[in-house]
UniProtKB/TrEMBL annotation:
This is Helix-turn-helix domain-containing protein. Transmembrane segments: none annotated. SMART domains: HTH_XRE. It comes from Rugamonas aquatica. InterPro entries: Cro/C1-type_HTH (IPR001387), Lambda_DNA-bd_dom_sf (IPR010982), MLTR_LBD (IPR041413). Residues 8-80 form the HTH cro/C1-type domain. GO terms for molecular function: DNA binding.
């Protein structure tokens, strides 16, 4: 993996024209791109360290350093994501969508003729359709708004309505915590997530006990059963998808059973 990272950086260094970063492009150059010393100076690292990185040696690059590399090399969003993936590092700007994905969230759920909602990394609902609001009346308001980001875990563990609505609540609660741990992975130490986990642990002994189990399971689909106060017994097949341009967002659909 270190070799692939070095090759990727070297290739894009050689593609970056000096004048694109404010350097003169004249003189004798073996390649039209940046010299290693120039890139090192622009990134405020030593040429030796950059040489070792490009050679695939066991040197560690911080997220801040990789972000600077991506900026200097004018990497696209996809190239930047690939760079951080090769380095096995978190992008300090991983939630920047760089496009119109945020604006399309309401349209995505509105186009689905079944309860559907979108969760962010903290499992706050950022978009949902009327069918979802009707099903989860104790969690999702009728009309989404930028100020309203109802959290699924707070609803699950702090609302009595959730225990009444969700059939086999204890088992679903256990799986939900294990799915949440798997979903956030190495992001768990981030301030917003750490604060949420601490809040839930203080407010719910059940959550605290389940969190200490260290259980991890994938967010799988399958049968979801509800006991709705107005609609009675309901069953759905849950499907969860990640958005291509925003991997921190999850689209959850509750589809009618065939």
């Amino acid at each position: 993996m270190h070799t692939k990272l070095g090759e990727f950086i070297r290739t894009h260094r050689e593609r970056t024209l000096p004048d694109s970063v404010g350097l003169p492009g004249g003189g004798r150059r073996r390649t039209p791109g940046l010299r290693r010393e120039e890139l090192a100076q622009l990134c405020e690292v030593s040429p030796t360290w950059l040489t070792w990185l490009e050679q695939g040696r066991e040197v560690q690059a911080s997220g801040k350093m990789l972000a600077r590399l991506a900026e200097v090399l004018h990497l696209s969003a996809a190239e930047r994501a690939y760079l951080f993936s090769l380095a096995d590092r978190l992008d300090p700007h991983h939630d920047d969508d760089g496009g119109s994905a945020e604006e399309a969230l309401d349209a995505i759920v509105a186009a689905i003729d079944a309860p559907a909602y979108i969760l962010d990394r903290q499992w706050n609902a950022v978009a949902w359709n009327p069918q979802a609001a009707l099903l989860f009346a104790g969690w999702l308001p009728p009309s989404p708004s930028a100020q309203s980001r109802p959290n699924l875990l707070r609803y699950m563990f702090l609302s009595a309505a959730a225990r009444e609505l969700i059939v086999d609540w204890p088992e679903r609660a256990r799986r939900l915590v294990a799915e949440f741990r798997a979903d956030i992975g190495r992001h768990a130490s981030e301030q917003a997530l750490a604060a949420l986990i601490a809040e839930l642990s203080d407010a719910s002994t059940t959550f605290a006990e389940l969190w200490t189990l260290q259980d991890v399971v994938g967010r799988e689909g399958g049968l979801r059963r509800f006991r709705h106060p107005q609609q009675g017994e309901l069953s759905f097949n849950q499907v969860t998808l990640h958005l291509a341009k925003r991997h921190d967002l999850k689209l959850v659909m509750l589809l009618p059973q065939a």
